[in-house]
Design a protein that fits this description.
CATH architecture of the largest domain: Alpha-Beta Complex
CATH class of the largest domain: Alpha Beta
Helix content: 40-55%
Strand order of the largest sheet: 6-4-3-2-1-5-9
Low-confidence stretches: 1-13
Structural class: alpha+beta
CATH topology of the largest domain: endopeptidase fold (from Nostoc punctiforme)
Distance between the termini: 75 Å
Number of helices: 13
Amino acid sequence: MIQLKTYLLTLTCALFLFQANAQFQLSKKSEVSVLTIGPGFVLNDAFGHSAIRIKDSLQNIDLVFDYGRYDFQAEGFYLNFAKGKLDYEIGWTYYEDFISNYKLQQRRVTAQIIDFTIEEKQKLFETLQTNIQPQNKSYSYDFFYNNCATKIKDILVNASNKSILFLPLENFEPLTFRELIRSHVPQNTWGGLGIDVALGSIIDRSASVEEHLFLPKYLDEILKHSKFDPETTKLVVRSEILNQTQKPNPSAFWWSPLIILGLVSITIIGITYKDWISKSRNKFIDALLFFTTGSIGLLILFLWFATDHTVTAYNYNFLWAFGFNLLMLKTVLKDKLKKRFIGYLKFLILLLTLMLLHSLTGVQAFNYTIIPLWIALLTRYGFLIHWFSQEKNQKNV
Protein backbone atom coordinates (compact mmCIF):
# COMPACT_ATOMS: atom_id res chain seq x y z
CA MET A 1 0.00 0.00 0.00
CA ILE A 2 2.84 2.39 0.88
CA GLN A 3 4.54 1.62 -2.46
CA LEU A 4 1.29 2.31 -4.30
CA LYS A 5 0.84 5.66 -2.55
CA THR A 6 4.44 6.59 -3.33
CA TYR A 7 3.92 5.66 -7.00
CA LEU A 8 0.70 7.71 -7.23
CA LEU A 9 2.36 10.69 -5.55
CA THR A 10 5.31 10.50 -7.95
CA LEU A 11 2.98 10.23 -10.93
CA THR A 12 0.90 13.19 -9.75
CA CYS A 13 4.01 15.31 -9.28
CA ALA A 14 5.30 14.32 -12.70
CA LEU A 15 2.02 15.27 -14.36
CA PHE A 16 1.94 18.57 -12.45
CA LEU A 17 5.49 19.42 -13.50
CA PHE A 18 4.71 18.54 -17.08
CA GLN A 19 1.62 20.76 -17.16
CA ALA A 20 3.68 23.57 -15.62
CA ASN A 21 6.41 23.15 -18.22
CA ALA A 22 3.77 23.14 -20.93
CA GLN A 23 3.00 26.82 -20.16
CA PHE A 24 6.54 27.93 -21.01
CA GLN A 25 7.67 29.26 -24.33
CA LEU A 26 10.72 27.45 -25.60
CA SER A 27 13.89 29.51 -25.57
CA LYS A 28 16.47 29.94 -28.30
CA LYS A 29 18.54 27.29 -26.51
CA SER A 30 15.88 24.67 -27.13
CA GLU A 31 16.47 21.67 -29.39
CA VAL A 32 14.20 19.29 -31.25
CA SER A 33 15.73 15.93 -32.08
CA VAL A 34 14.55 12.65 -33.56
CA LEU A 35 15.68 9.63 -31.55
CA THR A 36 16.20 6.24 -33.17
CA ILE A 37 16.33 3.12 -31.03
CA GLY A 38 17.90 -0.10 -32.26
CA PRO A 39 15.95 -3.36 -32.56
CA GLY A 40 14.94 -5.36 -29.51
CA PHE A 41 14.81 -9.08 -28.97
CA VAL A 42 11.11 -9.88 -29.33
CA LEU A 43 9.11 -9.62 -32.53
CA ASN A 44 7.23 -6.43 -31.65
CA ASP A 45 10.59 -4.69 -30.99
CA ALA A 46 12.42 -6.19 -33.96
CA PHE A 47 12.05 -3.07 -36.13
CA GLY A 48 13.37 -0.61 -33.57
CA HIS A 49 11.59 2.51 -32.36
CA SER A 50 11.49 6.26 -32.96
CA ALA A 51 10.76 9.21 -30.68
CA ILE A 52 11.02 13.00 -30.48
CA ARG A 53 13.02 14.76 -27.81
CA ILE A 54 12.31 18.34 -26.70
CA LYS A 55 15.20 19.80 -24.74
CA ASP A 56 15.46 23.30 -23.31
CA SER A 57 18.10 23.76 -20.61
CA LEU A 58 16.92 27.31 -19.81
CA GLN A 59 13.39 26.10 -19.11
CA ASN A 60 14.52 22.88 -17.44
CA ILE A 61 12.65 20.83 -20.05
CA ASP A 62 13.95 17.49 -21.31
CA LEU A 63 11.06 15.33 -22.50
CA VAL A 64 10.63 12.47 -24.95
CA PHE A 65 7.42 11.84 -26.89
CA ASP A 66 6.80 8.62 -28.76
CA TYR A 67 3.99 7.04 -30.72
CA GLY A 68 3.21 3.35 -30.88
CA ARG A 69 2.28 2.58 -27.29
CA TYR A 70 -0.27 -0.13 -26.60
CA ASP A 71 -1.67 -2.16 -23.72
CA PHE A 72 -1.49 -5.95 -23.93
CA GLN A 73 -3.91 -6.15 -21.01
CA ALA A 74 -6.62 -4.12 -22.73
CA GLU A 75 -9.88 -5.96 -23.27
CA GLY A 76 -10.03 -7.61 -26.69
CA PHE A 77 -6.42 -6.63 -27.52
CA TYR A 78 -5.51 -9.73 -29.54
CA LEU A 79 -8.85 -9.95 -31.33
CA ASN A 80 -8.74 -6.27 -32.27
CA PHE A 81 -5.14 -6.67 -33.43
CA ALA A 82 -6.11 -9.61 -35.65
CA LYS A 83 -9.07 -7.66 -37.06
CA GLY A 84 -6.94 -4.60 -37.78
CA LYS A 85 -9.01 -2.39 -35.47
CA LEU A 86 -6.40 -1.70 -32.80
CA ASP A 87 -5.77 1.83 -31.56
CA TYR A 88 -2.28 2.86 -30.49
CA GLU A 89 -1.35 5.90 -28.40
CA ILE A 90 1.20 8.66 -28.03
CA GLY A 91 2.95 8.96 -24.67
CA TRP A 92 5.72 10.94 -23.01
CA THR A 93 8.44 10.46 -20.41
CA TYR A 94 11.44 12.27 -18.99
CA TYR A 95 14.58 11.84 -21.06
CA GLU A 96 16.64 10.37 -18.21
CA ASP A 97 14.05 7.64 -17.65
CA PHE A 98 13.82 7.04 -21.39
CA ILE A 99 17.56 6.62 -21.98
CA SER A 100 18.04 4.56 -18.82
CA ASN A 101 15.44 2.08 -20.04
CA TYR A 102 17.19 1.49 -23.36
CA LYS A 103 20.63 1.34 -21.78
CA LEU A 104 19.25 -1.40 -19.55
CA GLN A 105 17.95 -3.21 -22.64
CA GLN A 106 21.32 -2.69 -24.38
CA ARG A 107 19.75 -1.04 -27.42
CA ARG A 108 21.56 1.62 -29.44
CA VAL A 109 20.07 5.13 -29.31
CA THR A 110 21.01 7.94 -31.69
CA ALA A 111 19.76 11.51 -32.01
CA GLN A 112 19.41 13.87 -34.95
CA ILE A 113 18.99 17.53 -34.06
CA ILE A 114 16.53 19.18 -36.45
CA ASP A 115 17.27 22.63 -37.90
CA PHE A 116 13.98 24.23 -36.89
CA THR A 117 13.40 27.90 -36.12
CA ILE A 118 12.17 28.81 -32.66
CA GLU A 119 8.68 29.26 -34.09
CA GLU A 120 8.75 25.79 -35.65
CA LYS A 121 10.02 24.23 -32.41
CA GLN A 122 7.24 25.90 -30.45
CA LYS A 123 4.63 24.76 -32.95
CA LEU A 124 5.87 21.17 -32.77
CA PHE A 125 5.98 21.27 -28.95
CA GLU A 126 2.43 22.59 -28.72
CA THR A 127 1.22 19.98 -31.21
CA LEU A 128 2.73 17.20 -29.11
CA GLN A 129 1.11 18.61 -25.95
CA THR A 130 -2.23 18.65 -27.72
CA ASN A 131 -1.76 15.12 -29.00
CA ILE A 132 -1.08 13.62 -25.55
CA GLN A 133 -4.40 14.85 -24.18
CA PRO A 134 -6.71 11.92 -23.32
CA GLN A 135 -9.16 12.81 -26.05
CA ASN A 136 -6.40 13.02 -28.70
CA LYS A 137 -3.77 10.45 -27.78
CA SER A 138 -5.28 7.44 -29.61
CA TYR A 139 -4.91 6.81 -33.33
CA SER A 140 -5.61 3.95 -35.72
CA TYR A 141 -2.44 1.95 -36.16
CA ASP A 142 -1.11 0.87 -39.54
CA PHE A 143 2.25 -0.90 -39.69
CA PHE A 144 3.33 0.71 -42.98
CA TYR A 145 1.58 4.08 -43.02
CA ASN A 146 0.74 5.12 -39.45
CA ASN A 147 3.32 3.84 -36.99
CA CYS A 148 5.88 5.27 -34.57
CA ALA A 149 8.20 6.41 -37.39
CA THR A 150 5.67 7.74 -39.93
CA LYS A 151 3.91 9.77 -37.22
CA ILE A 152 7.19 11.55 -36.51
CA LYS A 153 7.75 12.20 -40.21
CA ASP A 154 4.24 13.67 -40.42
CA ILE A 155 4.64 15.89 -37.36
CA LEU A 156 7.93 17.28 -38.70
CA VAL A 157 6.26 18.12 -41.99
CA ASN A 158 3.31 19.80 -40.25
CA ALA A 159 5.53 21.85 -37.93
CA SER A 160 7.88 23.07 -40.65
CA ASN A 161 7.14 26.37 -42.40
CA LYS A 162 9.02 25.05 -45.42
CA SER A 163 8.58 21.94 -47.53
CA ILE A 164 10.84 19.03 -46.63
CA LEU A 165 12.49 16.97 -49.34
CA PHE A 166 13.08 13.39 -48.19
CA LEU A 167 16.09 12.44 -50.25
CA PRO A 168 17.46 8.93 -50.82
CA LEU A 169 20.81 7.66 -49.75
CA GLU A 170 23.68 7.45 -52.21
CA ASN A 171 23.30 4.49 -54.58
CA PHE A 172 19.75 4.08 -53.31
CA GLU A 173 17.95 1.02 -54.64
CA PRO A 174 14.26 0.86 -53.73
CA LEU A 175 13.20 -2.28 -51.92
CA THR A 176 9.81 -3.89 -51.72
CA PHE A 177 7.91 -3.67 -48.44
CA ARG A 178 8.56 -7.39 -47.91
CA GLU A 179 12.29 -6.93 -48.48
CA LEU A 180 12.30 -4.07 -45.98
CA ILE A 181 10.64 -6.30 -43.39
CA ARG A 182 13.08 -9.12 -44.08
CA SER A 183 16.01 -6.75 -43.52
CA HIS A 184 14.94 -6.73 -39.86
CA VAL A 185 13.25 -10.12 -39.44
CA PRO A 186 15.08 -12.81 -41.49
CA GLN A 187 13.08 -15.43 -43.35
CA ASN A 188 14.55 -18.30 -41.35
CA THR A 189 12.96 -17.20 -38.09
CA TRP A 190 9.50 -18.04 -36.79
CA GLY A 191 8.60 -14.38 -36.80
CA GLY A 192 9.78 -14.00 -40.39
CA LEU A 193 7.86 -17.08 -41.50
CA GLY A 194 4.70 -15.90 -39.75
CA ILE A 195 4.91 -12.46 -41.36
CA ASP A 196 5.52 -13.93 -44.83
CA VAL A 197 2.57 -16.31 -44.49
CA ALA A 198 0.20 -13.66 -43.10
CA LEU A 199 0.93 -10.78 -45.50
CA GLY A 200 -0.21 -10.82 -49.11
CA SER A 201 1.24 -9.91 -52.47
CA ILE A 202 0.40 -6.22 -51.92
CA ILE A 203 3.69 -5.79 -50.02
CA ASP A 204 5.72 -7.14 -52.95
CA ARG A 205 5.75 -3.79 -54.74
CA SER A 206 8.65 -1.36 -54.52
CA ALA A 207 8.39 1.28 -51.80
CA SER A 208 9.09 4.90 -52.64
CA VAL A 209 11.79 6.82 -50.78
CA GLU A 210 9.23 8.34 -48.42
CA GLU A 211 7.52 4.97 -47.91
CA HIS A 212 10.83 3.57 -46.61
CA LEU A 213 10.34 5.85 -43.60
CA PHE A 214 7.99 3.42 -41.89
CA LEU A 215 11.12 1.75 -40.50
CA PRO A 216 13.04 3.71 -37.81
CA LYS A 217 16.35 2.69 -39.43
CA TYR A 218 15.41 4.37 -42.72
CA LEU A 219 13.85 7.35 -40.98
CA ASP A 220 17.25 7.88 -39.37
CA GLU A 221 19.25 7.39 -42.57
CA ILE A 222 17.01 9.38 -44.91
CA LEU A 223 16.65 12.32 -42.51
CA LYS A 224 20.44 12.76 -42.65
CA HIS A 225 20.19 13.45 -46.39
CA SER A 226 16.91 15.39 -46.34
CA LYS A 227 16.71 19.12 -47.03
CA PHE A 228 14.36 22.06 -46.81
CA ASP A 229 12.87 23.25 -50.07
CA PRO A 230 13.59 25.68 -51.72
CA GLU A 231 16.53 26.75 -49.51
CA THR A 232 18.16 23.30 -49.80
CA THR A 233 19.36 23.66 -46.21
CA LYS A 234 19.97 20.35 -44.49
CA LEU A 235 17.17 19.20 -42.21
CA VAL A 236 19.57 17.75 -39.63
CA VAL A 237 22.09 20.03 -37.93
CA ARG A 238 24.11 17.23 -36.33
CA SER A 239 23.85 13.65 -35.15
CA GLU A 240 24.74 12.21 -31.75
CA ILE A 241 25.10 8.74 -30.27
CA LEU A 242 23.29 8.64 -26.93
CA ASN A 243 23.89 4.95 -26.25
CA GLN A 244 26.44 2.99 -28.24
CA THR A 245 25.71 -0.53 -27.00
CA GLN A 246 23.55 -2.76 -29.19
CA LYS A 247 23.16 -6.32 -27.94
CA PRO A 248 23.25 -8.83 -30.83
CA ASN A 249 20.22 -10.97 -31.45
CA PRO A 250 20.99 -14.59 -30.47
CA SER A 251 20.88 -17.16 -33.24
CA ALA A 252 18.66 -20.23 -32.93
CA PHE A 253 19.47 -22.09 -36.15
CA TRP A 254 18.72 -25.57 -34.83
CA TRP A 255 15.21 -24.49 -33.86
CA SER A 256 14.66 -22.44 -37.00
CA PRO A 257 11.77 -23.03 -39.44
CA LEU A 258 14.10 -24.45 -42.11
CA ILE A 259 15.35 -27.18 -39.76
CA ILE A 260 11.97 -28.01 -38.22
CA LEU A 261 10.01 -27.92 -41.50
CA GLY A 262 12.83 -29.82 -43.18
CA LEU A 263 12.56 -32.61 -40.59
CA VAL A 264 8.77 -32.63 -40.86
CA SER A 265 8.99 -32.84 -44.66
CA ILE A 266 11.54 -35.67 -44.54
CA THR A 267 9.19 -37.53 -42.17
CA ILE A 268 6.24 -37.07 -44.55
CA ILE A 269 8.26 -38.23 -47.55
CA GLY A 270 9.64 -41.15 -45.54
CA ILE A 271 6.15 -42.27 -44.50
CA THR A 272 4.99 -41.92 -48.11
CA TYR A 273 7.86 -44.09 -49.33
CA LYS A 274 7.03 -46.70 -46.69
CA ASP A 275 3.37 -46.65 -47.76
CA TRP A 276 4.44 -47.07 -51.39
CA ILE A 277 6.61 -50.09 -50.60
CA SER A 278 4.12 -51.73 -48.24
CA LYS A 279 1.13 -50.84 -50.42
CA SER A 280 -0.68 -49.29 -47.48
CA ARG A 281 -1.80 -45.79 -46.46
CA ASN A 282 -1.13 -43.94 -43.24
CA LYS A 283 -4.44 -42.17 -42.57
CA PHE A 284 -3.04 -40.28 -39.61
CA ILE A 285 -0.46 -38.37 -41.67
CA ASP A 286 -3.10 -37.53 -44.29
CA ALA A 287 -5.50 -36.25 -41.64
CA LEU A 288 -2.73 -34.21 -40.03
CA LEU A 289 -1.73 -32.65 -43.37
CA PHE A 290 -5.29 -31.75 -44.33
CA PHE A 291 -6.02 -30.34 -40.86
CA THR A 292 -2.82 -28.25 -40.71
CA THR A 293 -2.95 -26.83 -44.23
CA GLY A 294 -6.69 -26.26 -43.92
CA SER A 295 -6.37 -24.41 -40.60
CA ILE A 296 -3.57 -22.15 -41.88
CA GLY A 297 -5.58 -21.54 -45.06
CA LEU A 298 -8.65 -20.59 -43.02
CA LEU A 299 -6.56 -18.06 -41.08
CA ILE A 300 -5.23 -16.62 -44.37
CA LEU A 301 -8.78 -16.21 -45.69
CA PHE A 302 -9.87 -14.60 -42.41
CA LEU A 303 -7.05 -12.03 -42.60
CA TRP A 304 -7.83 -11.42 -46.27
CA PHE A 305 -11.60 -11.01 -46.19
CA ALA A 306 -12.71 -10.49 -42.58
CA THR A 307 -10.33 -7.82 -41.26
CA ASP A 308 -9.46 -4.19 -41.91
CA HIS A 309 -5.83 -5.06 -42.66
CA THR A 310 -4.98 -3.89 -46.18
CA VAL A 311 -1.68 -5.77 -46.44
CA THR A 312 -3.16 -9.23 -45.85
CA ALA A 313 -5.19 -9.18 -49.08
CA TYR A 314 -4.28 -11.12 -52.24
CA ASN A 315 -2.28 -13.62 -50.22
CA TYR A 316 -1.33 -16.53 -52.47
CA ASN A 317 -0.08 -18.64 -49.59
CA PHE A 318 -3.55 -20.15 -49.83
CA LEU A 319 -2.21 -22.08 -52.84
CA TRP A 320 -0.38 -24.43 -50.47
CA ALA A 321 -2.45 -23.82 -47.33
CA PHE A 322 -5.85 -24.49 -48.87
CA GLY A 323 -8.66 -23.75 -46.43
CA PHE A 324 -11.11 -26.22 -48.00
CA ASN A 325 -8.86 -29.07 -46.85
CA LEU A 326 -10.66 -28.82 -43.53
CA LEU A 327 -13.89 -29.85 -45.25
CA MET A 328 -12.12 -32.92 -46.61
CA LEU A 329 -10.78 -34.04 -43.24
CA LYS A 330 -13.56 -36.58 -42.63
CA THR A 331 -13.38 -37.81 -46.21
CA VAL A 332 -9.65 -38.50 -46.20
CA LEU A 333 -10.04 -40.83 -43.22
CA LYS A 334 -12.22 -43.25 -45.21
CA ASP A 335 -10.87 -46.47 -46.73
CA LYS A 336 -12.57 -46.00 -50.08
CA LEU A 337 -13.36 -42.71 -51.79
CA LYS A 338 -15.31 -41.62 -54.82
CA LYS A 339 -13.45 -40.93 -58.05
CA ARG A 340 -14.17 -37.21 -57.84
CA PHE A 341 -11.85 -36.96 -54.81
CA ILE A 342 -9.00 -37.81 -57.20
CA GLY A 343 -9.97 -34.70 -59.12
CA TYR A 344 -9.72 -32.68 -55.89
CA LEU A 345 -6.21 -34.04 -55.28
CA LYS A 346 -5.20 -33.10 -58.83
CA PHE A 347 -6.58 -29.63 -58.15
CA LEU A 348 -4.33 -29.35 -55.06
CA ILE A 349 -1.31 -30.24 -57.20
CA LEU A 350 -2.40 -27.59 -59.70
CA LEU A 351 -2.48 -25.03 -56.86
CA LEU A 352 1.08 -25.99 -55.86
CA THR A 353 2.16 -25.53 -59.49
CA LEU A 354 0.50 -22.09 -59.56
CA MET A 355 2.37 -21.19 -56.38
CA LEU A 356 5.67 -21.97 -58.11
CA LEU A 357 4.58 -19.88 -61.10
CA HIS A 358 3.61 -16.93 -58.85
CA SER A 359 7.02 -17.11 -57.20
CA LEU A 360 8.98 -17.27 -60.47
CA THR A 361 7.05 -14.40 -62.05
CA GLY A 362 7.35 -12.18 -58.97
CA VAL A 363 3.64 -11.96 -58.20
CA GLN A 364 4.41 -12.84 -54.57
CA ALA A 365 7.61 -13.72 -52.75
CA PHE A 366 7.20 -16.80 -50.58
CA ASN A 367 9.32 -17.68 -47.57
CA TYR A 368 12.03 -20.11 -48.68
CA THR A 369 11.68 -22.21 -45.53
CA ILE A 370 8.39 -23.68 -46.82
CA ILE A 371 10.12 -25.21 -49.88
CA PRO A 372 10.65 -28.56 -48.10
CA LEU A 373 6.98 -28.57 -47.08
CA TRP A 374 5.96 -27.73 -50.67
CA ILE A 375 7.94 -30.77 -51.91
CA ALA A 376 6.43 -32.99 -49.22
CA LEU A 377 2.87 -31.91 -50.09
CA LEU A 378 3.50 -32.51 -53.78
CA THR A 379 4.88 -35.97 -52.97
CA ARG A 380 1.99 -36.93 -50.68
CA TYR A 381 -0.74 -35.66 -53.00
CA GLY A 382 0.86 -37.57 -55.87
CA PHE A 383 0.88 -40.75 -53.80
CA LEU A 384 -2.77 -40.28 -52.82
CA ILE A 385 -3.76 -39.89 -56.47
CA HIS A 386 -2.03 -43.18 -57.23
CA TRP A 387 -3.57 -44.87 -54.19
CA PHE A 388 -7.15 -43.83 -54.85
CA SER A 389 -6.81 -44.44 -58.59
CA GLN A 390 -6.58 -48.14 -57.86
CA GLU A 391 -9.92 -49.76 -58.50
CA LYS A 392 -10.02 -51.51 -55.12
CA ASN A 393 -9.91 -48.12 -53.31
CA GLN A 394 -12.72 -46.52 -55.33
CA LYS A 395 -16.45 -46.27 -54.85
CA ASN A 396 -18.72 -46.05 -57.84
CA VAL A 397 -19.86 -42.53 -58.48
